[in-house]
Specification:
Elements (H helix, E strand, L loop, with lengths): L21 H12 L4 E4 L6 H12 L3 E7 L11 H17 L10 H11 L6 H14 L3 E7 L8 H15 L9 E6 L27 E2 L8 H15 L5 H12 L3 H15 L7 H13 L3 H11 L2 H12 L11 H8 L3 E4 L2 E4 L2 H16 L3 H8 L5 E2 L2 E2 L1 H16 L4 H20 L3 E5 L8 E8 L2 E9 L3 H18 L3 E7 L8 E7 L2 E7 L1
Parallel strand pairs: 1-4, 1-5, 2-3, 3-4, 12-13, 13-15
Antiparallel strand pairs: 6-7, 8-9, 10-11, 11-12, 14-15
Length: 525
């Protein structure tokens, strides 16, 4: 079988190129051996299902592992406890009897007895859990229950009752046989469920009863070494001659190890770019550009969640465009949502955008909402052909024309407007010029209220533009020095400095400043 990079559904080592999961699986197995009830909460397409299937195979010699998926259950199943109980047992037995699952240790006579019980007209939750307890008692192996996509049921009253019964089984495990371990996986943390579920008699229930579980703390993102191992397997079969360490590091720099994004970049290079990619730096950048242009379920879900939550949207906008610092506080509803959905992560005590791919996609999303009514975007769009000469981006001209446009349209705006919108306006101006051919991202280490570095990739060449608020000559000289150091890191001999200055006697325009073998193009608006 020819293996490939997979971005849909679970991954299997005999079919797909994938990272090794041994350390993750051993960490979960240790918790199972301790009899813990576990929640695995990660963002969409973060490898949860792949991990659960691998765990099923990893534990099957010692345990009877029953892996269910609540996503297959329709809303009608949660109408009442009788409907749910019957449906749960039916699905449970279907999974156990599936020959491809290889579940041993659960005697068929016991399963037949459960099937007969569930056929009763008013089979309820209490009877369901009595039967499950009886199964655990008669089983030849300790039973582990795993439920994937469990949060797809989280807005149903019956689901909370189901969690209550699981919790009760756990608390009574000293006197009543129960599962060795229960693992619930999904995006939302059902342990801290706060969805309001209204009923005429029961009123509002704000908290999940699933407070006996522990979170899986194991990092499920891909580190550089993980990506190197995966690429090594690919290289062993395809002999591309790639610099595995260099390519793995570059992919990690763009994705911060988000599993779907890592695999998608590799898949684009392997299947869509072919020899054009050649597994080089340029190939990775081309794959990133193609990824950022496509519509996929991950990006569609990201947009929906942000559009539906104004407070989350506002926080992300302020981090991106204003350089506002949010202390990483998991008790903050917006920060907790951003973390849960995979949009943000903690870095040095602050909430930052999770990776460059998400960052650029979010910039594009916010900017797209303003394009049609933006004079700045329109000005660049009309004159875009003049900025590319012989396939190369004339960044000097971009800076010059932006200064002219900004001075003409926004020169009389108040300081607060320019401070909050200057960087956004520059990106609106830049976007139609490089759109479709080039790409940009913001260097997270320099994003703050005073300074932001934009890294532009265009036809294999990079440009660094530092955007800063003018705070006097001393601060400007400091910015020049920082940009020079950054140019060294990127091996560039030309850099660009755009200052938004509020001095009435400022000298608007563009000039070049020489620093030994380097040139700074400084623009002031």
């Amino acid at each position: 079988m020819v293996r490939y990079f997979n971005v849909t559904g679970a991954c299997y080592p005999d079919e797909h190129y994938m990272v090794k999961l041994d350390k993750r699986l051993q960490a979960i197995k240790t918790m199972v051996e301790q009899g813990k009830y576990i929640t695995i909460n990660r963002a969409r397409q973060y490898g949860k299902t792949t991990t659960l299937w691998a765990l099923h195979a990893y534990l099957q010699e010692e345990y009877a592992v029953v892996l269910m998926d609540f996503q297959r259950m329709s809303t009608a199943i949660f109408r009442d406890e009788y409907t749910f109980s019957k449906a749960f047992m039916k699905d449970f037995l279907k999974v156990v009897r599936n020959r491809n699952m290889q579940i041993t240790g659960l005697p068929e006579p016991v399963l037949m007895e459960l099937e007969m019980h569930a056929a009763k007209e008013n089979y309820n939750l209490r009877e369901l859990f009595e039967d499950l307890s009886d199964l655990c008692y008669k089983a030849e192996k300790k039973v582990v229950l795993v439920i994937d996509e469990v949060d797809s049921a989280s807005n149903n009253e019956v689901f909370l009752d189901f969690l209550s019964q699981l919790r009760d089984m756990y608390l009574q495990k000293r006197v009543k046989t129960t599962f060795q371990s229960v693992i619930l996986a999904g995006v939302y943390d059902v342990k801290n469920l706060k969805s309001k579920i209204r009923g005429e008699e029961k009123g509002n229930r704000l908290n999940s009863p699933w407070n006996v579980a522990v979170d899986l703390k194991t990092d499920m993102s891909f580190g550089i070494e993980d990506i190197k191992e995966m690429l090594s397997e690919y290289e062993g079969e395809h002999k591309t001659g790639m610099d595995i360490s260099k390519i793995a590091t570059l992919i990690y720099d763009y994705t911060s190890g988000y599993p779907f994004l890592v695999s998608r970049i590799c898949k684009i290079m392997d299947e869509e770019l072919g020899e054009q990619a050649n597994w080089t730096d340029a190939g990775v950048k081309t794959a990133v550009k193609e990824l950022l242009k496509e519509a996929n379920t991950l990006f569609d879900d990201m947009r929906k969640k942000i559009v539906d939550d104004e407070k989350l949207k506002k926080m992300l906008y302020e981090i991106l465009f204003l350089g506002k610092t949010y202390a990483y506080n998991p008790d903050s509803e917006q920060i907790d949502k951003g973390r849960m959905f995979g949009f943000i992560k903690e870095e040095n005590g602050n909430a930052v955008i999770a990776n460059r791919i998400y960052e650029t996609r979010l910039y594009n999303m916010f900017l797209s909402e303003e394009m049609l009514n933006s004079d700045t975007y329109e000005a660049a769009l009309i004159g875009k052909n003049q900025f590319v000469q012989d396939g190369k981006l004339n960044m000097n001209l971009v800076m010059k024309k932006f200064v002219e446009h900004f001075s003409e349209v926004y020169a009389d705006e108040e300081e607060k407007f320019i401070e909050e919108n200057g960087r956004r306006l520059f990106l609106l101006y830049l976007k139609p010029i490089i759109n479709g051919t080039g790409n940009y991202y913001i260097e997270a280490r320099t994003r703050n209220m005073q300074r932001t570095d934009v890294i532009i990739d265009y036809c294999g060449k990079q440009y660094i533009v530092e955007l800063k608020i003018w705070r006097g000559n001393a601060y400007n000289e400091q910015g020049e020095q920082q940009l020079l150091e950054y140019m060294d890191a990127y091996h560039l001999d030309r850099g660009y400095l755009l200052s938004f200055c509020f001095n009435k006697d400022k000298e608007v325009g563009v000039r070049e400043v020489k620093y030994e073998d380097k040139t700074l193009v400084e623009a002031v608006v």
